[in-house]
Amino acid sequence: MPRRPQARSGPPFPYLTEDIDFAFPPPETADSSGVVCSGGNLSPGLLLSAYRQGIFPWFNEEEPILWWSPDPRFVLFPEELHVSETMRKALRRNRGRAELSLDRDFAGVVRACSASPRPGQSGTWITEDMIQAYIELHRLGYAHSAEIRMGDELVGGLYGVSLGDVFFGESMFSRIDEGSKLAFIPLAWRLRDEGFTLVDSQVYTDHVAGLGAREIPRDEYLRLLADHGRRATRKGDWGRLFVGFPDSSEFRRVVLKEKS
User: Does 200 fall in a domain?
Assistant: First the structure.
């Protein structure tokens, strides 16, 4: 990462609970790299306020907390999800020997993401403070994980935050070939059935681009977020709320090969 603004001077922000909104600087004031501001903390109220305003935290160890709103924004519309024939075969091949679940081991997924090596990175941006902050959001019912297991081993997954009809993807990991995609694709199918309209992938990656994600202007993203992010949030344990996962109309059609 290039050099970023210094943390705000003065006393630290207070711990904000989930029901307290905080007004960040407008995303349009971000610098050319997408940084809106720095400083603050990772309390639930500050994190949820950031997501509602199109801003997310991303920083390295020993840096101040950096709050980002890049332009363009990298998103996936669930109805545009692209599943290659190779991935369709992999999903069918692993049916019966791989177990898919939601919110069964959120902390395990976050820690696996933190430990996964990233091309061109010597460390991780998922610090212990970040891990604890998102575990707290999960406890409050806003952060969720999708997992894939083979036997007792967690072999792939992802986690993110949900507000309204928007899922904000944070990170993925794989311990087998395409393990993260094997978890993400059924989740995206189910999110579409549940009425989700947007998966926010934040910044471009080849991995998610291959699934149909694309860049859109930040102002378009903010308009979509203002509409869909303020709708009723599916708050709670998605393993219980999304009964029968990975069942979805597309899972039945593609994996089970049922006729519609």
Answer: yes
